[in-house]
Amino acid sequence: xxxxxxPERVIEPRFAWRVAETVTPTAELxxxxxxxxxxxxxxxxxxxxxxxxxxxxxxFFAEPIAALHDPRLLxxxxxxxxxxxxxxxxxxxxxxxxxxxADGLTGLAILVRALRAWGxxxxxxxxxxxxxxxxxSVKAIDAARAAGATLIVTVDCGSTSLPxxxxxxxxxxxxxxxDHHRLxxxxxxxxxxxxxxxxDSRYPERRLAxxxxxxxxxxxLLADEPGGPAAALDLxxxxxxxxxxxxxxxxxxxxxxVRLGLARIAAGPRPGIAALxxxxxxxxxxxxxxxxxxxxxxxxxAAGRVGESAAAxxxxxxxxxxxxxxxxxxxxxxxxxxxDMTSQAMSEARAVIAAVAPAAPADRGATxxxxxxIAEHIPIHVTIVRGPWPVGIVGLVAxxxxxxxxxxxxxGAELGDVIRASCRSDGRLDLGATxxxxxxxxxxxxxxxxxxxxxxxxxxxxxxxxxFDALAARAVPDDPRLxxxxxxxxxxxxVDYALHRDLRRLDPCGQGNPEPLLIVEGLTVTRVRAASxxxxxxxxxxxxxxxxxxxxxxxxxxxxxxxxxxxDVVARLTSRTFGGYESLQLDIRDVASSxxxxxxxxxxxxxASALDEAATPIGAGVGLVLPxxx
Length: 630
Fold this sequence. Notes:
The relative contact order is 0.11. It is built from 20 helices and 19 strands. α10 crosses α11 (252-267) and α15 (321-355) packs across α16 (394-405). By secondary structure, it is α/β, with parallel strands linked by helices. The strands form four sheets. Strands 7-8-9-10-12-11 form a six-stranded mixed sheet, sandwiched between helices. A five-stranded parallel sheet has the order 3-2-4-5-6, sandwiched between helices.
């Protein structure tokens, strides 16, 4: 029986489909790809992603250990090594100061483990998110002095801790900064600043996470020790978790670290990681980037979001499985609390956003004794809301609001006279550059293109809202829909096992090296079914066979797509094995009537900067008249 046909119906895509511009691979690239056993479609896809030469292509698929660079090339690497050698020879006490998120905690564990293997007994220190915030703190300096430490090594922070490092120096304590964040115009008076982002850096990879920098320094420390190189390499699993959690691009040396780390976990995870995987009911042999992103990293972060991160740090540093299980149970409890707190804050934030019209008055009567969530401004370009929420969860709320509204989101936690805020982008706004442009009004700020944060006096919040909204308006695209970056568009009959095998060779995928998305053209819907959990299952016929598809988180498709519709879909190509037989499947992200999006833009999906003026600071000739708080 043939399916009904609905010629009058048009299924509009939810997203703006952005197909990568076609790049014709060079003969050199084709030859290299052929030697590696890649098909023409995969070679063209990689060329479209910027792999231009044979050397780059071969490096992408080479054994990962070959892609690890010489740590001696890092800025101030020689100063780092010389000062620590002196500390070891002199029996000095060294404090390792790590940030409280997964990147900082894994980096802390890496350096503490490396120094222990090096014959030292470092003092680990994890700051309080609420009491100390990001960066080196005066409280930590006091703790170092009380412990008799003469050297502090920071991990994943410190580049912007100018007054704190000056205070440490006054107290007779040397500070070595190891970090990967943007550097301010004025650098701290640290003994050494090991940061591949430095303008004078000659290190080949600038995109390392904080844990990635720590991993390289572990290699530097242990290079000449008996068994040292292998011991340093064994820490790649921790660097992998930190890198994935911090959303650094899984390219270049980070891709090599992640490949090594996944193999290390699959072969037998260390006690702390094994305990976390057991708590999440995950088989170590099946661990991938997605597992670490959604099962492991949130559990490491949870303790710091609802309390203190000491348990997470201890978990990563223990070699005792019984202790690891106890600590993992503590983190599991914290993770459940984090979920509940986030859910409550989301409900409150959504209610405020729904209730407050754009250009609402700045303050709707919140009092110091009974703070109420405040939406200062809900413009069409960015979602901004603040409320009496825990500092540790505002970043999670911001991420959810990006999904809700399809635009950047800023969520502030009210802490008396100051507001500490987290920002998340939808990929079209460079948050780091935009916050830099607002810099003079902050007490402190920092971050990346996709995630950032700041602290500001509560009285200046309305001023910030006006400035940020005006800057964000410059990044608004003509098409208000969120973009989907697509690698290939091809007829349904061209979807085959050879393509699937080629695409799997791009693993591990993640930030900077996303799962390839395809437009599969000319499919006829033969079955539509709403699935539990808010998903939609589709059966799609091409010529003589069908492809099964699942659209996760798209319950709307069960209502908008009908049997008999001729559609194009954007999907990730996967497979499943059942009863000993493998079949191709489509992990569907979007659906449209076939041919409706023929005039697709080939615009790149790079994050748009808010500033054509390259992040000119406010007050430095932006050429924009903005209201300010009285």
